[in-house]
Amino acid sequence: MTDGTDRPHSPQPDPAAGSGGGYGFPQGIPGGYGGRPGSGQPGSGVPGPAQPNPYQQEPPQGQPQPGRPLGVFPPAEPFAPAEPFPPAEPFGPGPGPAPESFASSSQPDWQAMADRSEAQQRKRRLLTVGIGSLAVVLVAAGTAFFLLKGSGEPTDKPTAAASGSPSPSEQSSEPPESKTPEDDSPTVAGEPNLLRDRNGRMGIALGPGASLGELSKRTEVRFKGTDDSYAQGAEAAVDVTKSFTVSTRAYNVAETGSRMAVSQGDGVSYSFELGFEVVNGKKAWVFRVQTGDKGQAATAQQVVADNVETVRNWALLTGTYDAEKKTIALWVDDKMVGQAQVSGIWAGPGPLQLGRARHHGIWSAAWDGPLDHIRVFGQALGQEQITGLKNNKLDKRTKPTHAWLI
């Protein structure tokens, strides 16, 4: 087949007789001219049958056989039709045991199914009970936690009452806790200006210039160092003819003059006084008693501590009188700083005073600063008891007859 254009060509000449295959083909090559196919004659294109050689081995497959020209292949065997395919068998089950049929099974085991359902329900009930118990325990634990937390000390500091004197609370250490749980009120119920006696029945009324300061764990009474800044009891707190102890925690702001924290008497003179005074040019704590009638200066006896800090510093001041030994002593914190022999103490008329003292028939020695932990004992305390007093760990046998602002 062509594209419609005659190509020039020259016909090839026939090979010469006796030349074999012609055009370089050896005799007997397929495609030659003139021989009868299959006759073995030259030019037939198929060689005749070869004579077998019993001594010649068959060459390996694919190797040329000796005596046969290169490119000459043995005659093909006549085509024999393959055996016919076996007739197809009709579709059906193969050899071997027949599979089980899909026939419906027997009736289900209703009892086993019921048992399994009951077991699952039992597990669910147990799980529900366990979760409920855990929830109850967690709720109870949370409630107990909040109750315990709520029963602790308040975190906010109570607001201090107004006062003309500066509060030294932030500058000094707090005293040991000594409040009893049954009643912490510093004043008599319904009487905000009447200090409550924690160990007796004698209240102390605040003067116009005195006030209370509420702190986180205690209450203090504050004085301004003026004539109207004081507090007075309803009666005498101690019998000065017998042994006694008077004590208070004191913070002094003044650096000059006479400043009495606690005294007793409102006649012409005090019976005893405890506080601050400049003695021989030195700032000192002093415990002084009147031994003669009507408070004569010549009959006053005192114990002085002028080698300790007395200004803007908290100190536990304690004065004792031993009626048997006729001695007075002054303690600062839990140390005895001095002792003196006396003939006795004059029992002047009048009640207990805070923040002032009676001198020659007039009020003087106004205290400037706060006081708290005011206590009176009907005995002269010794070293061990004074130490317990300082730490608020008195034994049961050492009980004050009166106590305020504890």
Considering the chains and any ligands shown, give keywords for the structure:
single chain; 406 residues; alpha+beta; nine-stranded antiparallel beta sheet; eight-stranded antiparallel beta sheet; 12% helix; elongated; disordered N terminus
Report on the architecture of this protein.
With 406 residues, this protein is α+β, with helices and mostly antiparallel strands. The chain is 12% helix and 26% strand. Strands 1-2-3-6-15-8-9-10-11 form a 9-stranded antiparallel β-sheet, with no helix packed on it. Strands 4, 5, 7, 12, 13, 14, 18 and 19 form an 8-stranded antiparallel β-sheet that branches. The N terminus is likely disordered.
With strands numbered from the N-terminus, the spatial order across the biggest sheet is 1-2-3-6-15-8-9-10-11
Number of helices: 2
Q: Percent of residues in beta strands?
A: 25-35%
Q: Let me know the average pLDDT.
A: 76
**What gross morphology would you assign?**
elongated
- Structural class of the helices, strands and pairings? alpha+beta
Radius of gyration from the CA trace? Answer: 66 Å
* Main sheet overview: 9 strands, antiparallel
- Which residues sit in consecutive blocks of at least 5 with pLDDT less than 50? 1-13, 15-48, 53-57, 79-86, 88-105, 150-166
Give the number of DSSP strands: 19
What is the string of helix and strand elements?
HEEEEEEEEEEEEEEEEEEHE
